Amino acid sequence: MKKKAVAVLVTAVMAMRMVSAVSVQAGIEDKTLIVGFDAEYPPYGYMDDDGEYTGFDLELAQAVCDLEEWELEKKPINWDSKDMELNSGSIDCIWNGFTMNGREDDYTFSDPYVDNSQVIVVAEDSGIDKLTDLAGKTVGVQAASAALDLLQSEEEGGQKELADTFGSLNEFADYNTAFTELQAGALDALAIDIGVAKYQLNSRGEGFKILDETLNTEQYAIGFKKGNDELCGIVNADLQKLADDGTVAELAEKYEISDMVTLKASDDASKDDAKDDTEAADDTEADTAEEK
To answer: Which ranges carry the Solute-binding protein family 3/N-terminal domain (predicted)?
Structure first.
């Protein structure tokens, strides 16, 4: 009886391992990558004038899918429900200006690809020029955002002490709504990621400014469910390929975040580019000499 019980137990364990392996592979083998993103978060993810979802992160995700011959499924999510979406398996990753700092133990993260600062945006004529000027003011922030976490944190580098000086800290579902409130004068300031702030200021024209003092500096990465190292590894390798072939730099320039992107071409790729440039120059000189 004992031998039979042990045999049954071993069989059950092996079956569980097989199921686990299949589940890990499922998102890869069905050739679909489901990306969860905030549809109100330009320039990383948003809806364009044609009604299509686009942005730096989504175009980069599409480039990865092109390399792997996967289909990209863009799934807009409520940002404060991102963990539920990821843990339930309805999305494969969170890829949309997602801050990794302070969350390293909660997700399996890709290599960081953007340096990001949390900043304060105010009206140009607000009279607010530094962080201490926010005392007694009404400040807006996106719900479940890194900026909100920062303003509620009492840990080293946190800004709860600053937030305690505010008249109030109001949460919004998205920054488009928050900017409308700022423009209307219902808010005195916004705590926001610098990339999103720059995009909003460029698209809305004059009337706003970013304070010189930043709240902190952080990094963006792609968040996978904890333990999904295989999918993360594939995406990481593809991101490096896209950095090496110039795709990352091209997209960064398109979305005006070149000064923030940290994903660079490898040393070997840089040497190859330099070699190609040298060979091209030599060919040009040879052609010129022949003409003479």
So the answer is: 32-259
| Residue pair 109/187 in contact by the 8 Å Cβ criterion | no
pLDDT given at position 205 = 87
Selection from 41, 81, 33, 77 nearest residue 57 by Cα: 41
The reported pLDDT for the residue numbered 18 is 38
284: enclosing H helix or E strand: helix 267-291
Q: How far is 174 from 190, CA to CA, in rounded Å?
A: 12
Q: Tell me, what's the pLDDT at 30?
A: 72
Q: Are 249 and 191 in contact (CB under 8 A)?
A: no
Measured distance CA(12)–CA(74) in Å, rounded: 37
Residues in the chain where the model's pLDDT stays below 50: 1-27, 274-275, 281, 292
Give the pLDDT of residue 279. 58
* Orientation angle between helical segments 247-254 and 56-68, nearest 10 degrees: 160
C-alpha–C-alpha distance, residues 198 and 210, integer Å = 8
Q: What is the pTM of this model?
A: 0.79
CA distances 227 to 16, 68, 180, 238, Å, are: 16, 21, 40, 19
| Strand, coil or helix: 47 | strand
> Residue 4 contacts by C-beta under 8 Å, 6 or more apart in sequence?
none
Alpha carbon 197 to its chain's center:
14
